[in-house]
Design a protein that fits this description.
The structure holds 2 protein chains of 2 kinds. By secondary structure, chain A is an all-alpha fold. Helices cover 75% and strands 0% of the residues of chain A. Chain A has one domain: ABC transporter involved in vitamin B12 uptake, BtuC (Orthogonal Bundle). By secondary structure, chain B is an alpha/beta fold. Classes of the chains: A mainly alpha, B alpha/beta.
Chain lengths: 369, 253
């Protein structure tokens, strides 16, 4: 049978009527998965708000949340104290948990995308040891003693140091054409270098400083303020449109560099842009929270195992998974032994790893070939 | 149609291609032959704009290829690499639909999906739509890669050894499909091939590369002689005809 593209293009097809149509089947399933995830996230969010030293009934929590979100005065009779607990104490850390989870997850997806390597996250290029070094440096230079601004000195130290590390890694990788291997190798090198820096600082730190350094590296959402959540949110919101537009580029890169280039992508530019934005978002988050590295690696994979590798769906869904993972972990961490709070950086591994292993065992082996 | 004039490629101080003049006409299947390292892949990658030639010019429909935007160029020229990474995470459908990227404004539209499904039907990969590409055999993977390129609805189709992983039946089928695409679809098709018999049988034109230069071009019987094959491949070969079909039989190295 002779083949011509004209004949191909004019052949009739009716999506909706054809149950065998793979587009219809796959898209419907994926949209359903994303919607379910969003619903679950909202429910967990309300539950997380209601839990704490003072447990609030769910209906009351929902009412307080609605009152804050709706125009004033629609809902009456809400106790001032409960309102304060919800909006000033619990919501900032819950919002930050979701932003951090979503941000770390999506940057993990993007970094795995551009390197075509499932073991990569922004932390592979040495961000967390670099941030830890910056924070340690700030602590050692007396940030603990600076009233009011001390916390922000640590944040600035962590952010600046993470960026410096990223610049070095990207420059090294850039000289070699932004290949995945160079980026990973340079990152591993800097990871050891910054770990050594931090260890050196710990070696000369006082007991109080040492405790502060170690505590910072746990990764915690304690004492997160609205301002901090806002800054992290702005960074994520600025990067997200680029990530979403690059979904097709990520899919194309998965098919190989040559294929992607022949489809019209400037791979050098895509890789550099993705890496820079991922670094900014990640550094912006961990500067406030400390090291919560695991989410960036595991949330993308949980998302992949559930929804597949098409980045058009993977990007939004991995954000939902990351937000859920961190929110659940933080909520468990602060309610299990309440009023004591276990840092979320620790709990997230306890929560995430069993789920991760369960999904790996349940899936067909091909997902990881 | 593609016109290549005095094209040269150097990697460092190693000259890979030198003084290449070649036309790739539409409505024809042109086979690019040559030993390993002769520069076939390099030439094809230059035409696909994956590599930039050191010297010379490439024109598409009379215009220098540099004047086309990346996506505009990809709407005209599709390239099938030697292999898709075996560990790719994509499913068959996800890989094939990539071919629509140069045409997209926003998401996949109705026509995009029609093209994708028809090409997948024609190349018999539709039943595998939801399977991971990593699960497929090498031959199936090559067909999927070809489907992805056809979905681009190109005017020029460049293929780097599209039959290397195929069994005999699929080699014939693939070459027949490419032949039909050229003849009936009006495409300019350029294939780098190792199989001289397939080239002689299906190629409307043949270009033989040796030592970075075009050693011969024209109809198969003008290009493929015992002498030219000895020069290009360093083997003795018999070029013959059986029941009206040409063949090239390698005898000894």
């Amino acid at each position: 049978m002779p083949l011509s593209l004209d004949a191909i293009a004019s052949s009739p097809l009716d999506d909706a009527a054809d149950p065998q149509n793979p587009f219809e089947r796959l898209t419907r399933r994926r949209v359903l998965v994303i919607a379910t995830g969003l619903g679950l996230l909202v429910s967990v969010c309300v539950l997380a708000v209601s839990l704490g030293t003072k447990n609030l009934p769910l209906t009351e929590t929902a009412r307080i949340l609605a009152d804050g979100l709706l125009p004033k005065g629609l809902l009456a009779d809400i106790p001032k104290l409960d309102q304060q607990i919800v909006w000033n104490l619990r919501m900032p850390r819950i919002v930050m948990a979701m932003i951090a989870g979503a941000g770390l997850a999506v940057t993990g997806v993007m970094m795995q995308g551009i390197t075509r390597n499932p073991l990569v996250s922004p932390f592979t290029i040495g961000l967390s040891p670099a941030a830890a070094f910056g924070a340690s440096l700030a602590i050692l230079f007396g940030a603990l003693g600076v009233v009011g601004f001390g916390k922000y000195l640590i944040v600035a130290g962590a952010f600046g140091s993470a960026l410096a590390c990223a610049v070095v890694v990207l420059c090294i990788a850039g000289l070699r054409g932004v290949s995945a291997t160079t980026m990973i190798l340079a990152g591993i090198g800097l990871t050891y270098l910054f770990s050594a820096f931090t260890a050196t600082l710990q070696f000369i730190a006082t007991d109080e400083e040492l405790a502060a350094i170690v505590h910072w590296t746990f990764g915690t959402l304690n004492a997160v303020t609205w301002d901090e959540a806002l800054i992290a949110a702005i960074l994520l919101a600025a990067a997200l449109p680029v990530f979403v537009t690059d979904a097709w580029a990520m899919n194309a890169i998965a098919a190989g560099d040559e294929t992607a280039a022949s489809l019209g992508f400037d791979l050098r530019r895509v890789r550099l842009r993705t890496a820079i934005l991922s670094v900014l978002v990640t550094a912006g988050i961990i500067a406030f929270t400390g090291v919560i590295g695991f989410v960036g690696l595991v949330a993308p994979h949980i998302a992949r195992l559930i929804i597949g590798n098409d980045h058009r769906f993977l990007i939004p869904f991995s954000m939902i998974v990351g937000a859920l993972l961190l929110l659940v972990a933080d909520t468990i961490g602060r309610s299990l032994f309440s009023p004591a709070v276990i840092p979320v950086g620790i709990v997230v591994a306890y929560v995430g790893v069993p789920l991760f292993v369960h999904l790996i065992l349940r899936q067909r082996r091909e997902a990881y070939q | 149609m593609i016109q290549i004039r005095s094209l040269g490629v150097r990697f460092g101080n190693k000259t890979v291609l030198d003084g290449i003049d070649l036309d790739v006409p539409e409505r024809a299947l042109t086979c690019l032959l040559g030993a390993n390292g002769a520069g076939k892949s390099t030439l094809i990658k230059c035409l696909a704009r994956i590599l930039t030639p050191t010297t010379g010019s490439i024109r598409l429909d009379g215009l220098p290829v540099g004047t086309f935007g990346r996506h505009a160029f990809a709407r005209k020229v599709a390239y099938v690499p030697q292999s898709v990474p075996a560990q790719t995470s994509l499913t068959v459908l996800e890989l094939v639909q990539l071919g629509r990227i140069p045409h997209l404004r926003g998401g996949l539209g109705r026509r995009d999906r029609e093209v994708i499904l028809s090409v997948m039907e024609r190349l018999a990969v539709a039943p595998h739509a939801a399977r991971p590409v990593a699960e497929l055999s090498g031959g199936e993977r090559q067909r999927v890669a070809l489907a992805r390129a056809l979905v681009q609805e190109p005017e020029v189709l460049l293929l780097d050894e599209p039959t290397s992983a195929l069994d005999l039946r699929h080699q014939l089928e693939t070459m027949q499909i490419l032949h039909d695409l050229a003849r009936d679809g009006g495409l300019a098709v350029l294939i780098a091939l190792h199989d001289l018999t397939l080239a002689a049988r299906f190629g409307d034109g043949i270009a033989l590369l040796a030592h970075g230069r075009i050693q011969g071009r024209g109809k198969w019987d003008e290009v493929l002689t015992a002498a030219s094959i000895r020069d290009a491949y360093a083997i003795d070969a018999i070029v013959g005809n059986a029941e009206g079909l040409p063949y090239v039989l390698p005898v000894r190295a």
